[in-house]
Amino acid sequence: MKKPHDLSWDVFGLGQCSLDYLGVIDRFPQADSKCECRDLTIQGGGPVATALVALSRWGKRCLMCGVVGDDPFGEVILHSLHSDGVHTDGVLVRPQCASQFAFIAAEPATARRTIFWRRPTGAPLHFNEVPWQEVHRSRVILTDGFFMDAALAVARKARAWNIPVVVDAGSLRDGMLDLARWSDHFIASEPFAKKLMGSEDPEGACRKLAGLGPEVVGVTLGARGSAYSFQGRLAFQEAYSVDVVDTTGCGDVFHGAYVYGLLKGWDVRKRFQRASWAAAQVARRLGGRAGIPSSLDEPMP
In what order do the strands lie in the sheet with 112-118? Predict the structure, then answer.
């Protein structure tokens, strides 16, 4: 890893940035019925964007690279990043296009949530649009693989420049396994692992992903914790028990906390432990950003 004084950014993030409308419901309704929604709130969202917000709050310099439209949602998305200190010079505004948007119904009684979302209507980020000088001046790359061509190009350059790449693998979309081969830290969601293996086998998913070459692989399992593999050894991190309001953003902040630990030089066990704790704190509040803990450096309760 490069020396900090040679760099402009602690983290270069490439991926989704969204606007989330969230509300709490008692239970998910049947079709053709009405459902009262309460505690409606609006927050910025997206896996990479929310991770960068967390990292910025924890004192890290972050640059976001992605796409929004020139609609009012895009303005709010950019404002939400700016207000938390995330630099958005790498976010392209596509004219006459719509930004990524989601409506999320949280069910605290079941610790579940349902997401209705629209992808950005503008053209995906092309690798020629990546600010390569800023990639080169970064300590860590974080991507969710949403703009796959750009993500693969960045990962390959990062390998040549000796910059570690962390992947938030939420969905098993085309190209994700190729991205795993060019990554150093590949942490997948439970649905990703289940689709990869064809069954509930997080340990098997860790082994299979580790065989592609990442130094560290992991699978987040919600309330059941996370499984991970390092240097050929499997380990398990328990989840922290909290009163769950909404699980939106838990995985995003998990990845942000993991990157924070990587920057701090923590060992793998401590990275997963603190990431699990941070994710649990997010679940106590509605939305992915309201519950981000103020610090990861204090001793945990």
Answer: 38-45, 18-24, 101-107, 112-118
Written as tens digits, the pLDDT of the chain (301 aa) is: 445 445 699 999 999 999 999 999 998 888 899 888 999 999 999 999 999 999 999 999 999 999 999 999 999 999 999 999 999 999 999 999 999 999 999 999 888 899 999 999 999 999 999 999 999 999 999 999 999 999 999 999 999 999 999 999 999 999 999 999 999 999 999 999 999 999 999 999 999 999 999 999 999 999 999 999 999 999 999 999 999 999 999 999 999 999 999 999 999 999 999 999 999 999 999 999 999 999 998 766 6
Whether the CB-CB separation of 52 and 257 falls below 8 Å is answered with: no
Cα 146 to Cα 237: distance, rounded to the nearest angstrom? 27
3-state secondary structure the chain: CCCHHHCCEEEEEECCCEEEEEEECCCCCCCCCCCCCEEEEEEEECHHHHHHHHHHHCCCCEEEEEEEECCHHHHHHHHHHHHCCCEEEEEEEECCCCCCEEEEEEECCCCEEEEEEECCCCCCCCHHHCCHHHHHCEEEEEECCCCHHHHHHHHHHHHHCCCCEEEEECCCCCCHHHHHHCCCEEEECHHHHHHHHCCCCHHHHHHHHHCCCCCEEEEECHHHCEEEEECCEEEEECCCCCCCCCCCCHHHHHHHHHHHHHHHCCCHHHHHHHHHHHHHHHCCCCCCCCCCCCCCCCCCC
User: What φ, ψ does residue 5 adopt, rounded to 5°?
Assistant: -70, -10
Nearest Cα to Cα of residue 186 among 141, 148, 223: 141
Domains and CATH numbers, the chain: 4-282 (3.40.1190.20)
Asked if 108 contacts 86 with a C-beta cutoff of 8 angstroms, the reply is no
